Amino acid sequence: MHIKSAEFVMSNSDVAKCPKSMLPEYAFIGRSNVGKSSLINMLTSRKSLAKTSGRPGKTQLINHFLINKNWHLVDLPGYGYARVSKSSKKVFQKFITQYFGLREQLVTAFILVDIRHTPQPIDLEFMQWLGENGIPFSIVFTKADKLKPKAIENHVEAYKTILLETWETMPNYFITSSSKNIGKDALLEYIDYLNTNMKLESN
């Protein structure tokens, strides 16, 4: 897939006010400072479509972007380290869970995980929550340029070992690096594949 257009549509904290169109949506979410904005900018070939920041927890709203006039990329608030008050964090969690529970347009979620670190409980718990609620997702390992191939393989295997304790199969996953453009084609081809299948099923 080649992204010809990427436009900001809206930001809000009320799922009921999200776009009314039934275009397919792909949600990106992960711990704060995982490189989500950089990944979105890499995928869309736009340097500042999503706002990057040195301050973790910058994204605090549901952000919709219209891609190629036919699907939405959704940038969701990070979880974990965000430097906000406990009351604000509760609001984030509420509209994140509402988004996943109510948004019929959602095709799948992409859970971003920093490949440099060992499996983190907060990521594993979120994946478990998605599984229990029947929400499809893929894992997107970020910052792969920071590790050598063998270390990347070992870290992915660590996730496989833990996840296969409770899952029948390892969730779909991608290895990416925003600075090196690694994983861009694979991610976009996967989204294109899902969009094409949905069109075929609706005909």
UniProtKB/TrEMBL annotation:
Record's keyword terms, sorted: Cell cycle, Cell division, GTP-binding, Magnesium, Metal-binding, Nucleotide-binding, Septation
Cofactor section: Mg(2+)
InterPro entries, per database record: G_ENGB_dom, GTP-bd, GTP-bd_ribosome_bio_YsxC, P-loop_NTPase
EngB-type G domain sequence ranges: 22-197
UniProt xrefs under Gene3D superfamilies: P-loop containing nucleotide triphosphate hydrolases
Pfam families membership: MMR_HSR1
SUPFAM superfamilies per the UniProt record, alphabetical: P-loop containing nucleoside triphosphate hydrolases
Family membership noted in the UniProt record: Belongs to the TRAFAC class TrmE-Era-EngA-EngB-Septin-like GTPase superfamily. EngB GTPase family.
Function: Necessary for normal cell division and for the maintenance of normal septation.
Protein name listed in UniProt: Probable GTP-binding protein EngB
Organism of this sequence: Flavivirga jejuensis
Name of the coding gene: yihA
